[in-house]
Design goal:
With 143 residues, this protein is of the alpha/beta class. It has one domain: Sugar-phosphate isomerase, RpiB/LacA/LacB (Ribose 5-phosphate Isomerase B, Chain: A), CATH 3.40.1400. It has 6 helices and 5 strands; from the N terminus they run βαβαβαβαβαα. Helix 4 links the parallel strand 4 and strand 5. Helix 1 crosses helix 5, helix 2 packs across helix 3 and helix 4 runs parallel beside helix 5. The N and C termini lie far apart (29 Å). It binds D-ribose (RB5).
């Protein structure tokens, strides 16, 4: 499975930890930057990861900015993206089960490293439940 990663300067350090964690677990990683703590604009990376997922260059995406807010807003502008900003593992699980989220977003200045890696693991291990959730997700796509 291939995971696209993106972050701004506020999420760079956590993105690097997520990258190492994913590689250790045997995932392929598509790192779309940023590649340092130099100040950059989060929409660039939300957009890049959103397109990588929708264009099937990656199966899922993980995005990190300072809060996770800006980068998730940007990613969700790409049609077909369902980026979920999560702050705990319950949200990471439920957004896969109910929303069929294809991108996990988080705040590098909000969550600790251990929680962040747990959220990534839970997100990637959880399947969409379908059923009653299917028509709701379809309705999002038809907006
Ligand atoms: C960058 O300073 C910060 O605004 C950004 O990382 C993010 O938190 C925006 O939502």
């Amino acid at each position: 499975m291939k995971i696209a990663l993106g972050a701004d300067h506020g999420g760079f350090e956590l993105k690097e930890k997520i990258k190492a964690h994913l590689i250790e677990k045997g995932y392929e990683v598509l790192d779309l930057g940023t590649h340092s703590t130099e100040s950059v604009d989060y929409p660039t990376f939300g957009h890049a990861v959103g397109h990588a997922v929708v264009d099937k260059k990656a199966d899922y995406g993980v995005l990190v900015c300072g809060t996770g807010i800006g980068i998730s807003i940007a990613a969700n502008k790409v049609p077909g993206v369902r980026a979920a900003l999560c702050t705990n593992t319950t949200m990471a699980r439920l957004t896969r089960e109910h929303n069929n989220a294809n991108i996990l977003a988080m705040g590098g200045r909000i969550v600790g490293d251990v929680l962040a890696l747990e959220m990534v693991d839970v997100f990637l291990a959880t399947e969409f439940q379908g059923g009653r959730h299917e028509k709701r997700v379809d309705a999002i796509e038809n907006i």
